[in-house]
Amino acid sequence: MNYIGSKHKLSSFLKKSILSVVGSNISNLVFCDLFAGTGIVGRNFKPIVKQVISNDVEFYSYVLNRNYIGNSEKLEMEDRLAFLNNLEGKKGFIFQNYCENGLQNRLYFSAENGRKIDAIRKQIEQWKTSKEVSDDEYFFLLASLIESADKVANTASVYGAYLKKIKKSAQKNLLLIPANFDVTKNSHKVFNEDSNTLIQNIKGDILYLDPPYNARQYGSNYHLLNTIAKYDEFQPQGKTGLRNYYRSSYCKKNEVKNSFEELIKNANFTYVFLSYNNEGLMTEDEVCTIMKKYGKYSLKTTNYQRFKADKTENRNHKATATVEYLHILEKLV
């Protein structure tokens, strides 16, 4: 998925850096990805650790991680996927509120793809209600829908706004692609909670933190993915059809430092790794000062090109040079 702050391109740097501190054999360790997003980091560690604990306060993220992390046994879903891909579209909540030719004519999706999303989402929920699919299968199908819908969204990567005309990639017909996950012998845990609350109730060996860096709230940027995931009835607000959303203290300049220190203080983990960058609300020195209070601190950096949507009519993606910090704490538990 096109995702703000995705660690996909940094995954090798992160894995190499973490293993250089913790050791190469981590098969008996518990790894926690506390601000999981699309789950890229947790997915990289899932096959090589004893257990992954994955968490994110956003429900669409919970769905993705409930599948990619929470599912560990092979599922036979080819027939279900084929059935869903052959469904006739329906004019449901997504079509009427977020699509071309809907009641509101918000151009997040083409008319055909909006109807397809509604039909697939309704069928998945019907199977769950009638217990024709297990919880594991339900979240697999739902994760597959979220990712497949995102591929044909008429946006510049985020859902804070839609484009004025249906772009070429959004004109393609939605095809439900399986959200395949790693099969592992060990089981894993997935949560949908506020990170500062959950940290008081979990423990492990490696804690990886990738909180929001700036004032952009993920709940507003990805509100439509939450709506597809929850498929609940509400009154969409304003031109963009926003729903009520969670507002993170990590996106607030006057709250972020207190929340971060509280998190570090309550972390019952031996090693803490924080991803942050040179454009974040907290400075490098502020993070260093807080982490040094709780153990041995060190820092690794790397330069990389992150992509962000251009604000021109063409909405081209432009590369921006960024310094990524990996703050490291060996905590005195």
Describe the fold and architecture.
There is one protein chain. The chain has 333 residues and is of the alpha/beta class. It has two domains: 1-72 and 193-212 and 253-333, Rossmann fold; 73-180 and 224-247, no CATH class. 35% of the residues lie in helices and 17% in strands. It contains 13 helices and seven strands. It has helices at residues 11-22, 40-45, 59-68, 78-85, 93-98, 111-129, 135-151, 168-171, 195-198, 218-221, 223-230, 256-266, 284-292, and strands at residues 30-33, 51-55, 189-191, 204-209, 269-277, 295-309, 317-331. It has a seven-stranded mixed sheet, with helices on both faces. The chain starts with 10 loop residues before the first helix and ends with a strand. Residues 310-318 have low confidence and may be disordered.
